[in-house]
Amino acid sequence: MERRQFMQQAMMAGAALTLSSLTKSALGAPMVADFPVVRIPEAQRKFKSKAVEALIAKIQHHISNKELAWMFGNCFPNTLDTTVAFNVVDGKPDTYVITGDIDAMWLRDSSAQVWPYLPLCKEDKDLQQLIAGVIHRQAKNILLDPYANAFYKDSSQESEWKKSDITDMKPGIHERKWEIDSLCYPIRLSHGYWKATGDTTPFDGAWLAAMQTVIKTFVEQQRFQGKGPYTFQRNTAFATDTIPMGGYGYPVKPNGLICSMFRPSDDATIYAYLIPSNFFALESLIQLQEMGKAISSLSALVAPAAALATQVKTALDTHAKVQHGTLGNIYAYEVNGFGSVNLMDDANIPSLLAMPYLNAVQVDDPVYQNTRRFVLSPDNPFFFKGSAAEGVGGPHVGLDMIWPMSIVMRGLTSTDDQEIKWCLDTLQKTHAHTGFMHESFHKDDPSKYTRKWFAWSNTIFGEFVWKVYRERPHLLKA
Description:
By secondary structure, the chain is α+β, with helices and mostly antiparallel strands. The protein is 41% helix and 11% strand. The protein has 16 helices and 17 strands. The two termini are 41 Å apart.
């Protein structure tokens, strides 16, 4: 089921369905002592990691707030508990990762879902193999279609969208929305895996071919040589689910930036030069160069990645910034090369807020700090503030809906104790007694939320708590 459809069906009913399954202690008793068991039973878990379980116990022991400790224990392992399917295919690990309530594997989500487990790979070789399997499968998916964002486990399965989408839909593809970040996330995961483990075995001939395809696709979408091979239109009532102008999008003036027809929210861009995704692409190209220089079998990546990175960086230096009336220079969200600018931010990552998290800009960059103030203010049309919370949302689920992911990202990119503690407290207050994160919740009523099973949001919340434990443990004692 596509995300927007799920939101429409579940937004009002999801909370009631989840809460009805909890024990009365979750609803009637003060949430300070005993909490209902909401984590999937051990016998039903898809994958078990002793290293993950040991870390959960260790961190929970150091969290004074028992509700927060309970939430961490539910959320951090959620990807492993519920979304992974591991096999060995042709003698290599192969891991299929669904997002949660949608049985499809997004290149973005699958990377982000397993990312926080990388530091544990050295002490858990089974976990390392699981993540190596994600890398192998992502390479296969990219080679199947670099313009697709989501895939099925069965390569012969045909998508429900084949009937409504005017694009080149191959069997095995769930959805074919071209998003720059879909090709960046597998590079980030591969580079992070290599750094964490020193293992180069996943980077075989198929992986090299996939990365060469990534570079080729990025170059095509610079559009110096025409519009390129990708078009997309959908028969839909949602403007954000289709691309205008014959499926190519509104015109851009080629300048070195890479076009992205969709945002990481799976919503259509207005102006195709999506700035946070181009920053992410630049960092990914730098990572490919590093791997190519260190691993002899990947040396063919160095020169083309370097040439493209130079073009993208020059274009970002020229086109990414805009003068804000009161904040000074900030980063735009989207531009088109003709001078048109879209000033906003979206909760999905990459976002403007998240760029330091992705190592795309430095957190102390003055332009980023100005941008951060913009993003977390009413000047951002998708910043919502209500009686329950404040945070960033986006067009995908509509007005007044805050994404917990944006609050997590605010905490992950903050250097201020008070702000980080506020993020922890707000996430605790807005999980609607479920013990899990959600896609979004209403700014005035957290019980009105979308997607009760969204593993990326759960896992990145756990990543945030772990980061606080490592760097500012006193905040977990408060």
